[in-house]
Specification:
Elements lengths: L15 E7 L6 H7 L4 E7 L6 H12 L4 H5 L3 E5 L8 H12 L3 E4 L9 H6 L10 H6 L4 E3 L4 E5 L20 E2 L3 E3 L8 E7 L12 E10 L2 E6 L16 H12 L8 H30 L5 H22 L3 H58 L15
Parallel strand pairs: 1-2, 1-3, 3-4, 4-11
Antiparallel strand pairs: 5-8, 6-7, 6-9, 9-10, 10-11
């Protein structure tokens, strides 16, 4: 029987609180994705591939990681994307482990996170809360497969499994994978396999001929955690190969958080594109306002209207959080239409201010030029300020 998540201390409404560690800096697609997803409240703790190396990572952990266990426990989901786990103190690692016991979900990528730091992950208290048997993988001598050929992702379609991944079957996804890195998964007892990989580690196949697990989950205490055999910066975020990769990850989060899965993923993607359009439109209006004010334009009315649009977007976000996607879609469309009109109004106000500035400058330059020309003509052509000088002679003595 597939166990449903028991949330305990975690809410099943409102924003999902995410704690993201590892490769989560602003240049990553996963960062921009969660920054623009109204359903989540992300807390980023960059702890891999950070300019400045380990000292900078330690600084980020010190600044951004919650200071108390309560701060970790209230997180609904924790990401480990290539995380250097020893950048976190043993106490912080224990906090993350215990938070899963009390209902926090989680996901770690690429089996043991990294070829360079996998031993630290295997020794961490945190990894015990995840479905991959890290100790068993390490005993095999760091079983990694770099750039396998003819790899194929196969979705598990058991009748008892919710459509976390199967809803993407038949979508424009590249299920044949080439030139990517992955790590062997060995599911712990009680883990569930959601997808398989055929090709890499075929000699270690035990449950399905030629296949080893690709994505797995299990319930640990009251929390549900996941492990993928590849890094989230690869197939999952490659929009050309898998435009639905981040939607798949979002489904894992929704399932672990005890939320309903979307019935129409295409509508959800359309709504998210509208959310991005709204955010870009707001930034454009603010840029026009700032530019217009630099020319002396009074943009208070524009800012007031923008505030009303932001309120309308907030109501649409509430519908989205309640998973009322049809109503949310209509509200976002209304807000976009209002924002387009406001953008034109803001441009017109800015243009009028610029026209006045240009007129003042034209009159100033033209007046100065005319005065200079008149003086030049009077002095050099008409010579009105000159008078005839009498001729003088030298007198002898």
């Amino acid at each position: 029987m597939l166990l449903m998540p028991c949330q305990g201390l975690h809410e099943t409404t409102g924003k999902i609180k995410l704690l993201l560690t590892g490769r989560v800096d602003e240049t990553r697609l996963i960062s921009s994705y969660f920054l623009n997803e109204p359903m989540v409240a992300p807390l980023f703790v960059p702890s891999r591939s950070v300019p400045g190396g380990d000292p900078q990572i330690e600084k980020f952990v010190r600044i951004y990681f919650p200071r108390t266990y309560e701060g970790v426990r209230i997180q609904d989901f924790i990401f480990f994307e290539g995380t250097i786990i020893n950048m976190f103190s043993p106490l912080q690692q224990r906090w993350m482990h215990d938070a899963v016991l009390e209902g926090t979900g989680g996901l770690n990528s690429r089996s043991l996170l990294s070829t360079a730091y996998c031993v630290d992950w295997g020794a961490s208290a945190t990894q015990k809360a995840f479905p991959n048997d890290a100790e068993a993988v390490l005993k095999l001598g760091l079983a990694w497969s770099a750039y396998p050929r003819d790899a194929l992702v196969i979705l598990e379609e058991g009748a008892e499994l919710p459509p976390v991944l199967t809803m993407f079957k038949g979508k424009d996804v590249q299920w044949h994978l080439t030139n990517y890195r992955c790590g062997l998964l060995i599911p712990r007892e009680g883990a569930i396999v959601w997808s398989w990989i055929r090709g890499p580690f075929a000699d270690r196949a035990t449950q399905r001929p030629g296949c080893t697990p690709h994505a797995i989950s299990w319930q640990y205490g009251e929390g549900i955690t996941w492990t993928t055999h590849d890094s989230l910066v690869d197939w999952w975020q490659d929009e050309s190969a898998n435009p639905y990769g981040l939607d798949m990850i979002m489904n894992m989060i929704l399932y672990s958080a005890g939320r309903n899965l979307p019935e129409d993923v295409e509508m959800l993607r359309e709504i998210r594109s509208r959310i991005m359009e709204l955010r870009s439109g707001q930034l454009l209006v603010l840029a026009v306002v700032e530019f217009g004010e630099s020319f002396g334009a009074n943009m208070n009315q524009v800012l007031g209207e923008l505030g009303k649009i932001i309120e309308k977007r907030g109501k649409a976000d509430e519908l989205y959080l309640e998973q009322e996607y049809l109503q949310a879609s209509a509200s976002y469309l209304d807000a976009i239409a209002d924002l387009e009109r406001l953008t034109q109004d803001a441009i017109e106000v800015k243009d009028r201010a610029m026209l006045l500035v240009y007129l003042y400058q034209w009159f100033t330059v033209s007046g100065t030029s005319m005065l200079a020309g008149y003086l030049l003509w009077s002095l050099m052509v008409r010579r009105r300020l000159y008078r005839q000088v009498d001729t003088t002679r030298l007198s002898g003595r």
